[in-house]
Amino acid sequence: MGVFVFLPLVLPLTAWPVARLAEQRLYPRAATRLLAGLAVVMAVCSTVCLGLLMVVGTAQLPGNPLPDAWSDPEVRAAVPYDEIAGKVAIPALIAVLLACGRTLWRHGRVRRRAHRALVGLPATEVAVLPDDTPYAYALPGGRRGRVVVTTALLSCLEPAERRALFAHERAHLAARHHRFLLAVQLAARANPFLRPLRTALSFTAERWADEEAARVVGSRRAVARAIGKAALVSRGTPAVTLAGFAAPGPVPRRVAALLGPAPVMRSWPSVFTSVGLAAWGAAAGTAVSALSSANSAVTMVLILHAATPW
Amino acid sequence: MTDQRQRPPRRGQGELEAQILSVLRAAEGPATAGWVQERLDGDLAYTTVITILTRLLNKGAVTRERVGRSFAWTSASDEAGLAAHRMRRVLDAESDREAVLASFVTSLEPDDERLLRELLGRAESEGED
């Protein structure tokens, strides 16, 4: 297998340029799907790679439950630097599994608790809560997805902007954006190099819902105003960063995008543009990552099969 | 510990709170815990009713005043107010809720507010579409 077995661990780096560019240049829906797909494939490959290294690593440990034959020199020879890589892979894989388990558990808990908080209200799609804190979000799952919004937020929006808000949240529910978000979050846990994809995807998912809301309401400007007003009225303490050096946050970028022309649905971009180069780079990285994981897995299974007496 | 045992199987706390609040809201004026217990359609223990009422008191959904040796309870908010309170607790407790609940807007960076006002100002001056 050679050093190729380590490739899936570092190839997620090829997704960085596309994570940066997809959120600006690609159609939001296409960008969201692309980013989620890249993240999932790369995370699976990286975890398979860790699993293979772990087999080699545990084989060295006395008293491990794996067959003795798996610690043959022949098996270990398949992985370069097996002494170190094998030992590092064990805690790494455990950490990945724990982090993913924790993410899933927390995801379920937030959803359950949020649904439980709404018990006693009429089972309408939109739940309006009398609260001085302005907020709105889409709550997936339960018997049906619900839109939760407070009176404080509704009171600062005009009718068209309220429609835009509801359309935005309904778009999140209808397209099941929480699944994309969860997938990319799990991927970021599996391989920290995939974290930029998570930030990028949460932005493109919002843009997707914005564009959908603009289509439903029939006014891009109403959606832009709704987002702007909601952000200004719900601004809390600003994030602690050096003022002046901070890049514009997601909210102004969303508003600016809505005030500009509608994005056009394009086919796969040409290699000769920056976004095209990034997208093709990420695609190639993903393909190589998948191929080398598959290659390593097959080789490993064959070697172990040959080494196992039964 | 004791109210763990007395709580009927698998009826959510939120559901009990909502039930008791709606009974109280139906009352004409302050009501005692015993009165509430009689009107609930489950066989809830008296202590459970007191426990839930106390919880509602902490959430500001009911008020109470001493009448003789016991308390008389009055509802202070409706079911929506109670739900709003519970939702705030959920949101405050979960630091990474953003990952689950796609929020309409996220917090603003330091320069964002100025930028946003400029954008909105430009949108206004360009007129309605």
Structure description:
The complex is a heterodimer of chains A (310) and B (129). Chain A is mainly α. Chain A is 66% helix and 4% strand. Chain A has helices spanning 7-10, 16-25, 28-60, 73-77, 82-117, 151-155, 159-174, 177-190, 195-217, 220-233, 250-259, 274-307, and strands spanning 126-129, 136-139, 146-150. In chain A, β2 (136-139) and β3 (146-150) form a beta hairpin. The longest helix of chain A has 36 residues, at 82-117. Residues 237-246 of chain A have low confidence and may be disordered. Chain B is of the alpha+beta class and 129 residues long. Helix content of chain B is 53%, strand content 12%. In chain B, strands 1-3-2 form a 3-stranded antiparallel β-sheet. Chain B is elongated and about 65 Å long. Chains A and B meet through α5, β1, β2, α7 and α8 of A and α2, α5, β4 and α6 of B. β2 of chain A pairs antiparallel with β4 of chain B, so a sheet runs across the interface.
Shape of chain A: elongated
What would CATH call the class of the domain at 2-75 in chain B?
A: Mainly Alpha
Spatial separation of the terminal alpha carbons of chain A: 24 Å
The number of distinct helices of chain B, counting runs of at least 4 residues, comes to 6
Decide which structural class fits the backbone of chain A. mainly alpha
Estimated helix fraction of chain B: 40-55%
- CATH architecture annotation of the domain at 2-75 in chain B: Orthogonal Bundle
What is the alpha-carbon Rg of chain B in Å?
22 Å
What oligomeric arrangement do these chains adopt? Answer: heterodimer
